[in-house]
Design brief:
The structure is a single chain. The chain has nine helices and ten strands. By secondary structure, it is α/β, with parallel strands linked by helices. The strands form two sheets. The protein has a six-stranded mixed beta sheet, sandwiched between helices. α4 crosses α5 and α5 runs parallel beside α6. The two termini are 27 Å apart.
Length: 234
Amino acid sequence: MTALLECVSVAAGYNRRPVVRDLNLQVQTGEVVAILGSNGAGKTTSLLTMAGLLRPLGGQVTVDGTPVNYRRPYLAARMGVQLVPDDRCLFTTLSVAENISFGRKGKAALDLALAYFPALEKRLRASAGVLSGGEQQMLTLARALVAEPRLLLIDELSMGLAPVIVQELLSVVRRICDETSTTVVLVEQHVQMALQIADRAIVLAHGDTVLERPAAELRDDPSLLKAAYLGKTA
């Protein structure tokens, strides 16, 4: 079976200097994979490369067997890849409904967004800039969701949010995956929360993959994560 997302010996970085080295990852349809690691480990760099926004220094990223085109990154979106960035990138002067419409127009798209994020229904006419942090993150996810992605890349969903909100949002991410067969790769600083909804996790340390295990194993044996975060191969 061909993996929906495959990274083969990927090196990625900036100014020809690798931040990530020899990343090998296969993610199947409907799977949630968490990328974990300390600050500077290469997590966001990995996501940007998967999204077609950063050209790899080596290796290859494919989506459903097709190489990602880095000369035309918009083609990744046409392949069904949606990135949810850590800074949300909302159009703050436009309304909630208008922001959702950038993912896909029409009543069906709006109904889909509100089915997963009902709290936005009362805020449809409000400008995105006046929403709370949690509401803004809901809107960012909703906009990506209505584009009907095959692959959803989520970078630090929890940035600036209270843990209770993070837990609620991650639960919705798991529900989206289960109900729509969307494949999810997420970077998350709340490790235990991420492991609660992930199927598998990899840990990066200084750009190297030092651990890859089922999420359940990492939940049950915290010593594995501790060793990985210290840069020890487990």
